[in-house]
Amino acid sequence: MKITPIDITGHTFAVRMRGFDQEEVRSFLNLVSSEFEKLISEHNALKEAQAQLQTSVSDLKERERILKETLLTAQRLADGMREEARK
């Protein structure tokens, strides 16, 4: 079950004889709700940052692959030129 800050704030407890101070409970629930909302916002921001970083990593991996291919091609060309020069 997912719980939201609104669920925390709106939750009510049954009143019993010798129960908890209702104002103190309400105050605590408001504090928990506020902190929970901050955590949700931080979590969402971290998910967005992670997605951006994954995109960057993918881009860098592609660039690395292209550079490796380019270096391999340059090496083959240099080897070919050396061989031709020897002949």
Description:
With 87 residues, this protein is an all-alpha fold. 82% of the residues lie in helices and 0% in strands. The chain has two helices and no strands. The protein has helices spanning 5-10, 22-86. The radius of gyration is 31 Å and the shape is rod-shaped.
Task: Kindly state the number of beta strands.
Answer: 0
The radius of gyration is 31 Å
Low-confidence region ranges: none
Helix content: over 70%
Q: Report the principal-axis shape.
A: rod-shaped
Compressed to H and E, one letter per element, the order equals HH
How many DSSP H or I helices?
A: 2
Report on the biggest sheet: none
| SSE class | mainly alpha
Which assembly state applies to the chains in this document? single chain
Note the beta-strand portion: under 5%
Topology of this structure?
Layout: H1 5-10, H2 22-86
What labels would you give this structure?
mainly alpha; 82% helix; rod-shaped
Outline of the structure:
This protein is mostly helical and 87 residues long. 82% of the residues lie in helices and 0% in strands.
